[in-house]
Amino acid sequence: MDKLSLLVIPGSVRQGSLNCTLARAAMRIAEAQGAATRLLDLRALELPLYDGDIEAKQGVPAGAVELIEAIMQADAVLVVTPEYNGFPTPLVINAFDWLSRAPAAASRPAGLQATANKPLGLLSASPGALGGLRAMNYLRQYFQMAFGMLAHPRQFALSRANEAFDAEGKLKDDKARQQVEAVVQSLLQLAGAVKTKA
Question: What value, to the nearest 5°, has the Cα angle with vertex 71 and ends 33 and 95?
């Protein structure tokens, strides 16, 4: 089988983002397990806040198409997000709301066709005691019900994330690292099984 490809999407890309740090740690783990990885910066897609009037006048922005193409090229998607007031970040929700509006084109399927049956893994990080768990649980429902993605049941919320990494961005706690490894490994196994059946 060809090398599996993993698309990693942080839900926060601000400077010093703990979730970007966790995303990169997960990428190193995936690469050690033989996968090819890509980090997608949702902010770089320059998507406006979803507005039906914008869609009617200008169509779906190019950034949404870029997101669709990145998902199509990947065997699995790993979303790594904090929570804002107990909910997923607007950066994630807005990007996928735009994706859901994209119709099929000659060279690609519609947005919702691109996400259907795509293996999905979830991680979160927060300085708080719950580690972003509430947002991750909302996202599980969102991605499964609205986008038809295959969300793996194994997930991990990294609590006290502001104390969790060393100067190189590696997880200091062995148990936390093992949890992230388990999520990544399980996701890649699911992706491999889906790819074999395709």
Answer: 125
Can you state the angle between helices 90-100 and 62-73, rounded to 10 degrees?
90
**Exposure of 103 in the CB half-sphere (CA atoms within 13 A):** 5
pTM (whole model) above 0.85: yes
Domain boundaries, the chain: 5-197
3-class SS at 108? Answer: strand
Secondary structure of 140-163 as H, E, C letters: HHHHHHHHCCEEEEEEEEECCHHH
Q: Find, among 168, 164, 140, 162, the residue nearest to 152 by Cα.
A: 140
Cα(13)–Cα(50) distance, integer angstroms:
19
The CATH architecture that domain 5-197 belongs to is 3-Layer(aba) Sandwich (3.40)
Give the pLDDT confidence of 60-87 residue by residue, as tens digits.
999 999 999 999 999 999 999 999 998 9
